[in-house]
């Protein structure tokens, strides 16, 4: 059974895609570490990368080439200066060289050494890539990796991915039924069950502190997105909207709202401005737009559980924090619950759009958010699982069809819909009796996976179907 921590589901990184940016970035880092481990890093004179399947077809739009170069050069997505990404990549292109691991200057000609195999896929997963280092004696070493969604990476021959270090969990969970059984038998809430598992890796205070730090990164991302204007990169000429909506909600229609200087001031002002359902609805949409505009602009986001769906959970958490007068304890409980639900979806189906379409990203994130919100709004274990089931049920079959291979259209707006559906699903579940439900969470996960397997490949992140081929746009920079 896979050992997946909540910190494997919620990871700080850089946009625009967990499977096409974060995964390849981590794979490149792992390749450099492996070269160092086997003692050949100092002998490398040239490095090459081959991208296959979905990574090749939409790699440029998702920044896969950028991620590989940064990963090989020793940059880390958690700590890198996002504002310097373009300059660093351009320097590598101009020099025809890369500092492997930040220490070893080697040849790297972009056009020659980063190859997109548009008509070839590897057997294990649509997101395959190989990295090859040529040594000074003419020999070469090679590794093949698969980016399987949510930033998770599997090496060729590795049977399954384990997120954090493998441990023996007191409450091993594979299905929603397992989570429900542990809660019932031990008389524990869902967050308590998940926390007991997390303590197999780290202390309880470390878990709480880590989750609150991730929550702060989410808030900072929302704040940046609500205060950044302009056109998103990539050539679609998509204009950022969150900043205008934020301004309108705070100061429009002659509203006399005091000014603010920082994130905390903004949060405090906002808590006192939303007076009715319509305003709150607009705020939730604004939060989601803000995150995914940041994501599309190579900003720092939190995979939740992916980058393409990174706005859903922060938007719902902002709804809870600002308009339900949420607490830090509630934030931790929401994230523990949502994180475990994401893990169950990953184990029973997929969180990779290349494998399951957009139901695997927006659908899973909406289900996670719905369950987490139901938990902190006083829901029973059955109501929490029911909320997740309802949210996913109404995303079943959603295709992944990014125009131009960019995580912009329809991806950004889909995050707003996923957030609203999550809130609605939680509200329905909280007013329902789960014992009378005809559809279970495990049943909807099985259905999602069967739907994914039946879905044509052109609807799975390849930009070969759906809106990607039916909407005419001019790509000025792609």
List the topology elements.
Blueprint: H1 6-9, E1 11-14, H2 18-37, E2 44-52, H3 53-57, H4 59-62, H5 64-72, H6 85-95, E3 97-100, E4 104-107, H7 110-113, E5 114-117, E6 127-135, E7 140-149, E8 152-155, H8 176-186, H9 190-198, H10 204-225, H11 242-251, H12 263-271, H13 277-296, E9 300-303, H14 312-323, H15 328-348, H16 353-356, H17 362-376, H18 381-393, H19 411-430, H20 441-454, H21 467-470
Parallel strand pairs: 2-5
Antiparallel strand pairs: 1-9, 2-6, 3-4, 6-7, 7-8
Brief description of this entry?
The chain has 478 residues and is of the alpha+beta class.
Oligomer: single chain
Strand content: 5-15%
Number of H- or I-type helical stretches: 21
Q: What's the overall geometry?
A: globular
Q: Using DSSP, what is the number of strands? A: 9
The percentage helix is: 40-55%
Taking the sheet with the most strands, its summary is: 5 strands, mixed
Order of helices and strands: HEHEHHHHEEHEEEEHHHHHHEHHHHHHHH
CA radius of gyration: 22 Å
Strand line-up across the major sheet: 5-2-6-7-8
How far apart the termini lie comes to: 42 Å
- Mean pLDDT metric: 93
SS-derived structural category: alpha+beta
Low-confidence stretches: none
Question: What do you see in this structure?
Answer:
The protein has 478 residues and is an alpha+beta fold. It is built from 21 helices and nine strands. Strands 5-2-6-7-8 form a five-stranded mixed sheet. A two-stranded antiparallel ribbon has the order 1-9. It has a two-stranded antiparallel sheet with strand order 3-4. A hairpin with a 4-residue loop joins strand 6 (127-135) and strand 7 (140-149). Helix 10 (204-225) packs across helix 13, helix 17 packs antiparallel against helix 18 and helix 18 packs parallel to helix 20. The longest helix is centred in the middle third of the chain and has 22 residues, at 204-225. The two termini are 42 Å apart. The relative contact order is 0.14.
